[in-house]
Model the fold of this input.
Amino acid sequence: MTDLQAAILADISQDELVSLAHASQKNYLGVISPEVMMDTIVRSRKTFRPSSMFGYRLSPSTSTIINVDDERTQAGLPAVGGDLFVTDGQGICKNHITHDESAARIASAKAEGAKVIDFYGGSTMMGVGARKPEFSIPALVEQILWLEHGIRSVCINRGISGSYSYEALTVLQSESLMDPPDCVVFYDGWNCCHNLRWSTGFKDTGDKLGNIPIYPGMSLAQIDHDTTLQYQFSASALAIRTLKLTTVSWLTKIANLIPGLSWRHFWRKVIDTVVSLKRNIFGDIESATPRPGANNRAQDSARYYWHIHRLAQICCAHFGTQYLTVLQPVMWWADKPLTSNEQLYFEASKFAEAEHVAFCRAIIDQKPDTDFLDLSTTFKNNQDELFIDSGHLNRQGNYLVAQQISRSLLEKLR
Done:
C-alpha cells in the first residue's frame, strides 16, 4: 500500500477538520448543512454567492465545512461527518490548505514546463465526500500523475456544488480560456440530468413557467433567481417574504436556546412544514411540465448534453487545449454490488433512478468516438463501500476515479 492510499483510508475527525480550517488563515464561515434554519442559510449564502450568469460562485478566501449527514441520517445511514473546503482569492477550491493561490500555481507550472489541467463539475468534483481538500478528485489526479506516472501538473478544481455542464461552459469561456490550460476535464452527468430533464420538458408546453421565461441552457438555480427578481417590485410578495424571514429568524433563535440536535430537528420540521424559505422549484416545474416518458425526455436531454460538450471541445481546440468528457458514476448507473449502507440510500432515493438510468443510456448511445470516458464500470465487482449517498463518493471512490482519469489523460499530456 502506498503512502497516498494509506492516507486515504486513515480516519479523519471533525475536530481535525475544524483545526485545519482555522489553520488555513482564511475567513472560517463555520459548518454548513442543508437545513432551512436561518443561521445555516446565512452561512450557505456567504459560501455560495448567487450569480445570474453562473448560478452560483464560491466566495474567495474562505474556509468552511459542509456537512452531508442530514440526508444520510434521514435515510437511516450512519453519520460520516463534514468536508473541509478552502478557497483562494478567486473563489477556486484549493487542493491543499498550504497551497499558493491558483494563479501563482498556474504561472509557476507554465514557467517550469508542468501541465495545467482545469477540472469542472458539481459537488463531487468540488470535494463533497473527500473530507480534506487533498482527497478531492483534482487533488488526487495531481498526486497520481506525479507519483505513478512521473508527470508534474497543477490541477485546478473549478467544481461548484450544484453546477452542471452549461454553467461550466460559461466559466470556461469567460475565465479559463483567457489563459488556456493544457487540458480541460468536464466531470458531470448527475447534475446535468437534474437540470436538463426539466428544461427540455418545456418543449411541449411553451417557454414559460407561469410568466418566467425559460431559455435553453438555464439551470434550476438561474430559474430560481429569475423568479425572485420577478417579485422585487411586488409589495404583497415582499411583505410575505419579510414575514417569513422574520418568523424563521425567531424560530431559529428559539431552536438555539436549548442545545441538542433533537430539539433543533423539531423546530426545523416546524419551519419546513409551516413557513419554509426554500421554494420548491422542482415541484413547480414538475406541475407545469407534462410527462412524455423518461426515455423521450432522456433522448432530448442527452442531445443537449452533447451539444454543450461539443461547444466546450470546440472552444478548447481553438486554443490548442486538450479536452475530456467524463460521465461520472452514480449509484443507479455504476455497475457495483452495493453494501448494506449503500443499499439503504439506494432504496431511499430510488424515485430518481428511472430518469437517471434513461439519461445515462441516451448519453452512451449518442457518444462521440473520442474524448469521452464512461466511468460506469469503474467499480465493477468492488465490494467496498464507495458511495456516501446516491452520487457522492468517499475518499476511496475518489481515488479509483482519479486513477481512471489519470490514465485517460496520459496520451493528452505527453
